[in-house]
Predict the 3D structure of the following.
Amino acid sequence: MRELMNEDGWELHGPLEGRTIGRVVESRADALPVGAIVFHRQAWRTHSIVTADGANVLPDFEGVPLSAHLSILGGTGLSAWVGLTRVARLQADETIFISAAAGGVGTAAGRIARLLGAGRIIGSTGSAAKAAHLTEHVGFDAAFDYHDGPIADRLREAAPDGLHVYLDNVGGEHLEAAIDVMRDYGRIAWCGAVAQYNTPLDPPPAPRNLYDVVGRSLRLEGFLVRNNLDARPELYDFLVPHLRSGAVVPDETIVDGFDRVVEAFLGVLTGANTGKMIVRIGD
Ligand SMILES: NC(=O)c1ccc[n+]([C@@H]2O[C@H](COP(=O)([O-])OP(=O)(O)OC[C@H]3O[C@@H](n4cnc5c(N)ncnc54)[C@H](OP(=O)(O)O)[C@@H]3O)[C@@H](O)[C@H]2O)c1
């Protein structure tokens, strides 16, 4: 969303789009009956007019909180799933590093990696409190505050035998550090680059060690979740039983009130959230 603002993606003074869940209050479409709970992309509005093509009735997974469809079962969790399974092809017992680990994609990736049998899961985040949250509540084996000295040094301490996989949500120095610490034939799934969204005219330098990708036979592959929407049934099959049993809890920061939507959005760019940032404007 932040990137679209750099790229003339949105009309000035128009309401912004985004992912949302709502209840149908009035309908002329048989596919969207009144009362149905739907997912659509016309957020930053209290009420939206959608077409039957532009909204999906959400599956009713009894025992799973609705908000999960915006977090670990939504595009956020799907990004983590695709990055780990399709792009990085994480294997049991492997060591994985996840950046922006306390955010929406990061927490989902940590939980999914654990369920996939990862050996050691390491995360970076913006404060000591969030790092402690990751190890105490999300199932990470180690986590560090990326303000705390060179990232490559923190990573080497946390992964003395090197990394098999890196899920990159940050870019810049994080990516350079991960390349430094990757094992031969390691795989990097590049999901995002939050370190550069606010400074589009002055992005951090590309990793200076990029050529190590050749020397150590690494694979660095970017991906977009929207090109992998066919993976959603896999994600549902994999996660819904764990959500129902309570073994997995969606990680979310809930902000109440439509008038706080801008504050919530800006908060994602400064680390105000743990897990997916969600604005709640109704019950
Ligand atoms: N490829 C795709 O299709 C796809 C789909 C969804 C999301 N994404 C990308 O995935 C990443 C995570 O998205 P999300 O929606 O789950 O957001 P998020 O992780 O919930 O929020 C972003 C987090 O990034 C951290 N951050 C902010 N500025 C930073 C900086 N300069 N350096 C390091 N960390 C910083 C903040 O936490 P700290 O306190 O830890 O700093 C913040 O909580 C983003 O880069 C996003 O663009 C890609």
